[in-house]
Amino acid sequence: MINVYGIYDQCAMCYITTINERDDKVAERNFKIALTDEHNIMSKTPSDYRLVRLAKFDENNGTFEEAKENIFDGISLSK
């Protein structure tokens, strides 16, 4: 299974992109890197962004299973 994540922009009030990762820890690590990378626009206002696991994808049969859960909120980095 591969997890599908969305990055939610609280200012735009929508998901701005999706990413695929094997597990929550890897997705969270990569999201935190993006939020702290001075060359990434998300680092300018990290509290606007939230990482959400949206679904699990079974690469063997091509099906999605809803698995929505908040993984990391960028506001945690602003404190």
Q: Layout of helices and strands, plus pairs?
A:
Elements: E1 2-9, E2 14-21, H1 24-36, E3 49-58, E4 63-73, H2 75-78
Antiparallel strand pairs: 1-2, 1-3, 3-4
What does this structure look like?
The longest helix has 13 residues, at 24-36. With 79 residues, the protein is of the alpha+beta class. The chain is built from two helices and four strands. A hairpin with a 4-residue loop joins strand 3 and strand 4 (63-73).
Question: What's the quick description here?
Answer:
By secondary structure, this protein is α+β, with helices and mostly antiparallel strands.
Task: Kindly report the average pLDDT value.
Answer: 94
* Largest sheet data: 4 strands, antiparallel
State the end-to-end distance.
34 Å
Order of helices and strands: EEHEEH
